[in-house]
Each structure stands twice: as C-alpha cells, then as structure tokens.
Amino acid sequence: MLDLSNRQFNIVLVKATIISFMITLIFFLFGDYLFQNILKIDIESMRILGGIVLFSFAYFNIVKGRKGFIQMKENLTDLASEIALPFMIGAGTLSLTIMMRHQLPFWIGVLSLLIIFSFNHIFVMLLKAFKDQISKRKFKVAYDKNMQILLRINGFIVGAVGIDMIVTGIKAIFFP
C-alpha cells in the first residue's frame, strides 16, 4: 500500500476483489459437488481446516500485530492474486461459502457474495483514503497505534470465529 499510488492500489484491489469474488462464486456453485463427489472430502474437514487457518491468522495478529502479515516482494502491480488468496479468501471463506449454498436460495447467495465483496472493496478504499488524510496531519502516530489495537481486537474476534468453526466441525462429525 505504501509503494503504490492511489490509482495503482485501487487497480490492484479491484483485481483482487474480482479474483476473490469469482473463486467464491465457483465454490458457491460447485464446491459441495467438488468436495463430496470428486475429492470425497467431508465439508466438515474443510470447516475445521478453515478454523485452524483463521485461528493461526488471528494468533499472529494478536501476538505480532502488523508485523504478523506476510511481506510480499513481487512486482507491485501484479499483487492481485497474492492479496486475493491468502488475505481476502481462504479455507474458512470457501467452507462458509459452500455452507451458504445449503442455507440460501441461489440468487440471494450470489447477491450476498456480490454485496459482501463490494462492501469489502469500498471499506478498504475508505480506510486507505482516511489513512492518507491522517498521514498529512500530525495524527499519524495516534492513528497507527489505534490501528494496532484494532488489529489485535480483530485478531480475538477472528480467532473466536476460527475456534467456533473447529468446534462446529468436530460436533458435526462426531455428533450428527
């Protein structure tokens, strides 16, 4: 984010959002079939893996804060797929997307995914714009410290979601 202009950052974020949306849409449409019929993997296994990944991500956010993020050293304009897969979607997102298919009518599910990714894109752009405005003023240090606190609080929430996914998956496997 620091090495890209606002326009370049927006282009990378748009690409990452589109890649993420398309992957989740594919899993919304075909994920259940893929896991049950082709891979012969129980969806609860994916839910447990997603919970472990979310918990791991949350743990590093809590313990290390911003330093817990993976540093990427690729061509900065080609980061969309690197941002999409580990950060915007992962095992937890994909397993929840497959479960959405069971609980929501088709068009409501697709519309929900579209709204979620649109909101995510807008929210990230607003945060970047806010950070850019703060950077021009004397509040940058206070902003950075408060974001560290929010990042750690977010880690606790994401960690709880991850643990809940693990517990739910284990309950569904052993106590159907």
Radius of gyration (Å): 18 Å
Distance between the termini: 45 Å
What is the count of β-strands?
Answer: 0
Give the DSSP E fraction (strand runs of 2 or more residues): under 5%
Largest pleated sheet: none
In which range does the helix fraction lie? over 70%
Into how many domains do the coordinates divide?
1
**Shape type:** globular
Q: What structural class do you assign from the helix and strand content?
A: mainly alpha
What is the string of SSEs from the N terminus onward? HHHHHH
Uncertain spans, ≥5 residues at pLDDT below 50? none
Round the mean pLDDT to the nearest integer and report it. Answer: 79
Count of runs of 4 or more consecutive helical residues: 6
Give a description of the structure:
The chain has one domain. The radius of gyration is 18 Å and the shape is globular. Helix content is about 80%, strand content about 0%. The model has no long low-confidence stretch (mean pLDDT about 80). It has six helices and no strands. By secondary structure, the chain is mostly helical.
